[in-house]
Structures are given as C-alpha cells and as structure tokens.
Amino acid sequence: MAHLKRSIGISLWFMFLTLPLMVVRVNTINNEVEWRWSNMLWVGVCSFALAWLWQFSTERRAARREADKAAAQPAVEKVTFAQRLADDPVLSKRLLLVAAAIGLAFPWLVSTGTNFYHVNVMVSALIFVVLGLGLNITVGLAGLLDLGYIAFFAVGSYTYALLSKNFDLGFWTCLPLGGLMGMLFGIVLGFPILRLRGDYLAIVTLGFASITKIVLENWDTVFGGAAGIANIPRPELFGMALDGRQKAVYSYYIVLALVGITILVTTRLKNSRIGRAWMALREDEIACVAMGVDMARTKLSAYALGAFWAGLVGVIFAAHNSFINPDSFTFMDSAMILAMVVLGGMGSILGVIIASLALKLLPEYLRTFAEYRMLVFGAVMVLMMIFRPQGLISNMRRKYDLSAVKKGKTDGSK
Asked: Residue 360 half-sphere exposure, CB side, CA atoms within 13 Å?
C-alpha cells in the first residue's frame, strides 16, 4: 500500500512538472492554445509504472542483501560481464574483432548512392569517442576534474586550419602537429594548477576554456573571429579526386583507425606504471605522494596525454567539416564529454565508448520525436544516475585466482 501511494504521488508530481511542455501548445498560425490532455495521461501512467518498478526492485535488492547476510554460508559472488572481459584476454580480443568487423562494414551497410547521412553521424560519434577516451585519462584515471577539455580540441582544429591556409601543409603532416600542440597546451595549463584540487581545479579549467574561446572570437586577423575559417582541405588520398560519399567514407575510416589506436594506447597506459600512479593519485593524493610518486610529473603527464588525443582528433574534425568557428567549441561540448566519462564509468574504457556512442547517437536518431527528444534524453540520463551511479561499466581490474595455482602445485607434488 505504501508503494502504491508513493508511486501515485510521484506520477502526480511528474504530471505537474511536465504540464507546460507536454500539454500546452501554442498554435501561432491560428493564434490559439491547444490542450493535449492525452499526453498528460501517458506521462502519469509511465511515471507511475517506473516509480513502482523502481521501488519494487530496490526493496527486492535490499531483501536479497539481508538474506545473504543471514545465510550460514556466504553467497557466491556473481561475475559480471565486465569482470569477465577484464579477466579473460581471449574473450576481450574476440569482442574487439567482432566490433572491428562491424565497424569496417558499417559504411557499406548503411550508405547507398548519395545518401551518406549515417556515415557522417557516425564520424561525429567516433570523434567524441576519442574525446571521451582522452578525457578518461585526466578525469577517470587521474581524478583531475577538467571542465575545459574542449579547449584542447579547438587547439588541434585551429592548428590544422591555420597551417593548411597559411603554409599549405597537408592533412597527414598536420595530424601529429595538432596532437603535439594540444599536448603543449595541456602542459601549459597543468603547470600553474599542480596544487589545486576539487572545485578550484574545475574553476580554473573552465576559465581556460573561456579564455580560449574569447581569444578565438576576438583575434580576427589570426583566427578569423566569429566568422571562423572556411574551405579547410579534406584529407587527401594519394592525390585522388573523391566525391562527397567517398570523402565521408574516407574520413570515417581515418577516425575509426584513430579510435582503435586510442583504445590500444589507453589500455596499455592504464596497465602501465604511469597508469597505476594515476589511479593512486585519484584515490588519495597525500598517500600517493607519501609513497614516493612524483605528483608534478604524474599530473602533467595526465594533462598532456589527455590533451594530445583532443588535439589529434581536432585535426580530423576540422578536415571533416571543412569549416570551424568558436561556436564549434562551447562549454556544453565539454559538459557532454565529461558526462560520457561519468556515465560510462570512471576509468572504464569500454564504458566510455558505449556512453560516448549513446550520448551522441541518441539525440540524433530521436529527431523523429522532435518535440520530446531532449526530454527523453534527459530522462535516460537521470535514470542512469539513479540505477547505475557508478556508470554503465565500473572500472574493473584483472583478478588472479591464487588458490587455483596453489591447488595445481599441490596436485603436481602429490
């Protein structure tokens, strides 16, 4: 009975909150107000069902925990799929091969003739996958909150735009230069804020992004101001002339290859000595320094390597769009990339990839529900924070079963 009353109260509250958006509609053509009461009914029914299911699942989970505590023998811990991937390298390699095969075949499965809309959408999504993995180094592994990550993305984009316009340098020459420029700016940002933590660190990084955007908008002679830079050359393929679809597919394969390289490098970094230092810094900075870890070098490496991937993929972004301006790099983009890391799971590479694809593809493919797509998008994020506060896939570490090894040695000795 208590669940029923609480669910009814939640549904009434949601109906009241969504009344202006879901029920009231102003018809500017006929100059009249339309009242869509059926929408309110649907909101009430759906919110009631979700609230009841939420309370039922929460109560059931609590009862299961109490039963496990009261049991004479502890319950066998269930191994999640993420933990199996972390423990079994063969399974993770097979999953990567399947994902690579799907990625390679994607342009030929969804694009026909002049219709390459899905390829362009996927290019944008994969660009944000690289950005999410780069920020995952700074925020997820090292625990350094960064609200201005989009500034390094802008540095890479403008590096390619200016070098190609003023010095006639090609895409492949500017690609590593964009990454190096992003790394340089990451080090420049990291030096003054080595002793900052928490909210103060977030404010400084946010200020860095704001300063970068203001400089881009007001330095007209160099960066083109608010008008931006147009006619940026697309990636070249041995001097061949490519049509619109071929250019989109070529950009797709470039960014897909960059995603694969980023996954490989970030995985190796995570399991390396510097990766362990990042995670130790994230857990407890004072204890980390007391154990002999060089805090300055560890923080600077996290900022530099995270910014490197942003600068690298910024070159691809500028080449793919052929046009950039300061409005291409807003605070909302930084917030979106940070949401990808948090929703995917701090430090989890697979979780960040899934969250990046979901957060970029869901708003695009929900355009059918043009009036409600952002409402649905926000509801999905709220539900994620309620039911999976640790993220889609929490950061799993490889486990070694020493008991099985000892048992094998004992059996061999007998």
From this structure: 25
213-231 pLDDT, tens per residue? 999 999 888 888 888 898 8
What's the pLDDT at 176? 92
Contact 233, 225 (CB under 8 A): no
Could you list the beta-strand ranges (E) of 197-307.
Answer: 229-230
**Least confident interval from 41-45, 291-295, 364-368:** 364-368
- Residue located via tokens 């109260």: 9
DSSP 115-177: B-HHHHHHHHHHHHHHHHHHHIIIIIIT----S-THHHHHHHHHHHHHHHHHS---HHHHHHH
CA proximity to 213, closest of 333, 318, 299, 304? 333
Alpha-carbon distance values, 208 to 134, 158, 201, 211, 317 (Å): 18, 16, 11, 5, 21
Is the confidence at residue 156, as pLDDT, over 70? yes
Whether residue 128 is predicted with pLDDT greater than 80 in this model: the reply is yes
Based on C-alpha coordinates, what's the Rg of the chain? 25
Q: 100-127 pLDDT, tens per residue?
A: 888 888 888 876 655 678 888 899 999 9
- Is 0.70 topped by the overall pTM? yes
N- to C-terminal Cα separation, the chain: 63
Q: Which residues pair with 32 in a beta bridge?
A: 27
Diameter of the chain by CA atoms?
Answer: 91
Contact 303, 138 (CB under 8 A): yes
Question: How far, in Å, CA of 184 to CA of 53, rounded?
Answer: 50
Distance CA 159, CA 152 (A): 10
Residue 69 burial (C-beta neighbours within 10 Å; 0-12, 13-18, 19+): exposed
